[in-house]
Specification:
It contains 11 helices and 11 strands. With 491 residues, it is an alpha+beta fold. It has a 5-stranded mixed β-sheet with strand order 6-8-9-11-10. Strand 8 and strand 9 form a beta hairpin. The longest helix is centred in the middle third of the chain and has 101 residues. The termini are far apart.
């Protein structure tokens, strides 16, 4: 028993001696480790974190991180792998080993891997610790492979804590960099699409500009054609009108020489009727030619306006007398409610054209009742109202009435309702230019025009013209005779 006790004591002494020697060896090795004197310090960690936080480029951030670790600590090397973004040959090869491993706390200590084949492969590459990088959905997207420490120093608990801390920093950096890259790609794509759309828009605008110029040219060509045609037609029409009047006068002179018993025979009545129809037709044709000519000039500054003081009462009376026969032929009463009003200031020919056009339209679109013309005044304007008992104008058509070439629908009323036949009207002939010209002339002389209408009850066209001021007679015309001679280079 005593011998055994002595042997045990001797063994404990020997073990203690070996333990002290080994412990001192461990302390000596730890003392040489850079860990305690370098990257465990707050300054080291802050510097390392600043490096990766100063960059949004993944390649540059990781490269700077690796260089700092290798040069400032005793870790010999790092392998990085970030899926689909950064590919290192070694990192990509090693990443496949950890796909099926159970990873806790994002850290794998190679010596704790139970798969001997994987452990051997990793140790062959000098990898001792793996820290896994995850995306915001907790999926493995990469890893950092921490290699052997210089002088074969092993990884301590504080080393692992340091790795965990820096892996979190790298993870945040990569997540931020990925989001930045995605946003940058999105902005670039958007910018590219915006540039393409802008370029396409510019091309379309250019095409529209070219098309607009072509349309302007065609419109100008059309106006020139109408203007030239109107001028060319007006001369022979005026000659025909003059000859018809001369023929009418000659026939009437011949009739006056006949005995009264022979003046009212059937032949003479037919001849007089034909002559009168010719006069009415040629006057209608001349009005149409004048309308076309005015329409071609409308919108241009060269339309002649020669304003003067005008007695609009006598002008309305003259137009009413001229259209009474046409109104009587349709069974309409043309009534002017005359009252004394001030003189207006405008172009005589243009004012007559406005009044005549509106009265003519009222007769065309009326089948019954009367056409009433009234006037009123205020401090600055005289207003003329021309009211008919025609079919009226649908509300949706009213804003379009004064547009060039616009005409009402063929029928107003319900063609399928036999009881509605009294309001059924086939559209009269015309160019669709009359109201367009009237509006332009009224506005050119400083007035305005509008319409109030209701289907089945009729329409009222109203226009204003300025009241004449105390203007000297010699200034009524917009030009003087000597100006015309000067332009024609005549004395």
């Amino acid at each position: 028993y005593i011998n055994n006790l002595l042997i045990l004591i001797i063994d404990l002494v020997i073990i203690s001696i070996f333990y002290i020697i080994l412990y001192n060896k461990i302390l000596a090795e730890i003392g040489k480790n850079k860990y305690f004197s370098n990257y465990d310090t707050l300054k080291f960690r802050d510097s390392l974190n600043n490096i990766i936080n100063q960059s949004l480029d993944i390649d540059k951030g990781i490269d700077d991180f690796k260089k700092y670790i290798i040069t400032k600590s005793d870790i010999s090397d790092l392998f990085f792998y970030i899926q689909d973004i950064l590919i290192e040959k070694n990192g990509k090869k090693l990443f496949k080993y950890i796909q099926d491993l159970e990873v806790e706390d994002n850290i794998i200590f190679v010596f704790e891997i139970h798969n001997d084949a994987i452990k051997t492969s990793l140790l062959r590459e000098g990898v001792e610790v793996i820290s896994v990088i995850k995306d915001i959905n907790n999926n493995n997207i990469g890893a950092i492979f921490w290699k052997n420490k210089i002088n074969f120093n092993f990884y301590l608990l504080n080393d692992l804590n340091f790795i965990k801390s820096e892996t979190k920093q790298i993870n945040l950096f990569i997540t931020r960099a990925i989001l930045f890259k995605e946003n940058k790609d999105l902005v670039n794509n958007l910018q590219e699409k915006v540039s393409e759309a802008t370029k396409e828009l510019e091309n379309n605008n250019k095409k529209l500009e070219n098309a607009n110029e072509d349309l302007k040219g065609l419109d100008q060509l059309k106006d020139d054609l109408i203007s030239i045609s109107s001028h060319e037609l007006r001369t022979p029409a005026s000659i025909v009108k003059g000859n018809v009047y001369m023929a009418q006068s000659a026939i009437q002179s011949y009739i006056d020489t006949l005995p009264k018993s022979q003046q009212n025979n059937e032949y003479i009545e037919k001849l007089s009727r034909y002559i009168q129809r010719s006069i009415e037709s040629i006057e209608s044709e001349i009005r149409l030619i004048n309308t076309l000519l005015e329409a071609s000039r409308m919108g241009k500054s060269d339309i002649p306006i020669i304003p003067e003081n005008l007695d609009i009462v006598s002008m309305i009376e003259s137009q009413v007398d001229g259209f009474k026969k046409e109104a009587n032929n349709k069974g309409l009463r043309l009534i002017y409610h005359k009252k004394e009003i001030p003189m207006i200031y405008g172009d005589r020919t243009k004012v007559e054209e406005i009044i005549g056009n509106l009265i003519s339209n009222a007769i065309k679109y009326s089948e019954r009742g009367s056409i009433d013309i009234r006037t009123e005044e205020d401090k600055e304007y005289v207003t003329v109202h021309i009211k008919d008992n025609g079919v009226g104008i649908p509300e949706e058509e009213i804003p379009l009435l004064f547009q060039k070439f616009h005409r009402l629908n063929n029928y107003i009323g319900n063609p399928n309702d036999p009881k509605d036949r009294k309001h059924l009207l086939v559209r009269p002939g015309g160019t669709g230019l009359g109201l367009y010209v009237v509006k332009g002339l009224v506005e050119r002389m400083g007035g305005r025009i509008w319409i109030d209408s209701k289907v089945g009850e009729g329409s009222t066209f109203s226009f204003t013209l300025p009241i004449a001021k105390d203007i000297k007679k010699e200034n009524n015309n917009s030009f003087k005779s000597q100006d015309v001679f000067k332009k024609l280079k005549l004395k």
